[in-house]
Amino acid sequence: MSVRALLDIHVARKRFADTTVLKDVRLALQPREAVSLLGPSGCGKSTLLRIVAGLEQDFQGELRRPDGEVAFVFQEPRLMPWLTVEQNIGFSDDNHYDRAWVTQLIEEVGLKGFAQALPKALSGGMAQRVAIARGLYSRPQVLLLDEPFSAVDAFTRMKLQDLLLQLAEHHAIALLLVTHDVDEALYLSDRVLVMDNRPSSIRQALAVELPHPRDRRDPRLAQLKALSLTALQQAHVI
Amino acid sequence: MTSKTQAVPLATPLALNRSAWPRRLKGLVLPVLILLVLEVVVRVGWLPSYQMPAPSEIALTLTDLAEGALWKHVSASLGRVVLGFVIGASLALVFAAWVGLSREAEAYLEPTFAGLRSIPSLAWVPLLLLWLGIDETSKIVLIAIGAFFPVYLNGVAAIRDIDRKLVEVGQMYGFSRRRLVRRILLPAALPGLFTGLRSGLSLAWMFLVAAELIAATKGLGYLLSDGRETSRPDIVLAAIIVLALLGKVSDGLLAALEKRCLAWRDTFQGAGQ
Ligand SMILES: Nc1ncnc2c1ncn2[C@@H]1O[C@H](COP(=O)(O)OP(=O)(O)O)[C@@H](O)[C@H]1O
Ligand SMILES: [Mg+2]
């Protein structure tokens, strides 16, 4: 692992009661790098992300996080239903949030005009945009995303993927993303890590050395997809 | 094809007409009908008027009372309800927050409250009379006991029903416990708290009547028992009407407050108009 890694984690063992969920998982994230985690349901991907986020502190191992913020985008938007879009984005600063910065973020995620809307007035895709903006509000160096687009339709998902890439590029943020979608993993990331069944570790790493912006129809992506499907099969995911 | 498209506009005006009836008018139909029937039935003599006075007679009694003693009774009752409710509900909110937020407090307190709750609250009456006498204090305490449990139960449930996923957002930001309560737990629990406050208030009115029926020299409950003792069903019914109005108005105030505070809720509003 490089010395300059932004985030460095080694989970020697993580267990819930008697079940060991993660075993000897090593992961390093370079600045501005995008890494995807693929693996069977229940193998501990969310758990790994929660450890990195600091939400899960009971594990054996080591975690080195950047001095700057690490932000989390959950599978569901998890917006506070009683707050407006604007207040949700600036949630971490109570009522004295930086209005100019919030307004800029609202524009960047394409929700201009919705600053005063309540979450109940938003579609699933729009709500997830707000959640991303809330993640960006604290100017993080790392954005953790746990299946962030799994609840939206395919077209919205593609749009949100492009939005995410654009924002990560613009704000120089590294991404660590859990997904079930092989295409999504390949389209978004520089490295795809395949995890196997419990107790899980990282079984294979696949480098996606294609420049951005990528074309979803790129045959090289199709080749990589074949490779990852093989990897997933070997890991008994499929 | 054409016949189908033509059939549609015929049906729409009818449907529009029916739902254009203002909602309030719809609600008035049944009560007005009942009053008219009663008036007729009593006038014709099918019901003896010393048992069931005609609605018009009750209205007369009500205006008579309004010119005299009614306000004394209303203010006495209102004062008792407000005081008892405020005391009971405040204590209930404090305990609900305590038990809801802390497993430790739950372990110590919840069994006791569960035990107390299984006593029908009116069973306290003799004890309260023995301990506190028949003056104001025993009435206020009884009303407070009545208001306490619905507020407490709904409060604890409201806190325990909060989505853990929302709380996690606060933990992600490293919120302190106080900040978590203020920013997430309190607003998220508010709908349940309002439900509790409203049912607490309606129980406060119920216990007010119980307390005043047993021993009082003024108040609407006193008016009720006075009407019975002097064989004046019109007075009893007038008091019942005033109680209903007061209950409705006080609940309406809470409902309006609830609507204002909970405008963000995304709930089913019922189908149709
Ligand atoms: N809080 C918890 N308590 C007990 N077991 C848990 C808890 N969270 C997760 N697990 C278990 O750990 C395993 C991994 O969960 P998770 O990280 O959510 O999987 P994934 O996100 O890869 O689908 C699952 O088998 C799950 O049942
Ligand atoms: Mg998961």
Structure, explained:
The complex is a heterodimer of chains A (238) and B (273). By secondary structure, chain A is α/β, with parallel strands linked by helices. Chain A has one domain (7-234): P-loop containing nucleotide triphosphate hydrolases (Rossmann fold, 3-Layer(aba) Sandwich), CATH 3.40.50.300. Chain A has seven helices and nine strands, in the order E-E-E-H-E-E-H-H-H-E-H-E-H-E-E-H. Chain A has helices at 45-53, 85-89, 99-108, 124-137, 154-171, 182-188, 219-234; strands at 7-16, 19-29, 34-38, 60-64, 70-73, 142-146, 174-178, 191-195, 202-207. Chain A has a six-stranded mixed β-sheet with strand order 5-6-7-3-8-9, with helices on both faces. Chain A is globular. The two termini of chain A are 30 Å apart. The relative contact order of chain A is 0.18. The model of chain A has no long low-confidence stretch (mean pLDDT 92). Chain B is flat. Chain B has helices at 2-20, 23-44, 55-67, 70-101, 103-117, 125-132, 136-160, 164-172, 177-214, 220-229, 233-261. In chain B, helix 4 packs antiparallel against helix 9 (177-214), helix 6 crosses helix 7 (136-160) and helix 8 crosses helix 9. The longest helix of chain B has 38 residues, at 177-214. The model of chain B is unreliable at 1-13 (pLDDT under 50). Chain B is mostly helical and 273 residues long. Chain B has one domain (55-261): MetI-like (MetI-like fold), CATH 1.10.3720. Classes of the chains: A alpha/beta (238), B mainly alpha (273). The structure holds adenosine-5'-diphosphate and magnesium ion. Chain A: Belongs to the ABC transporter superfamily. Chain A: This is Sulfonate ABC transporter ATP-binding protein.
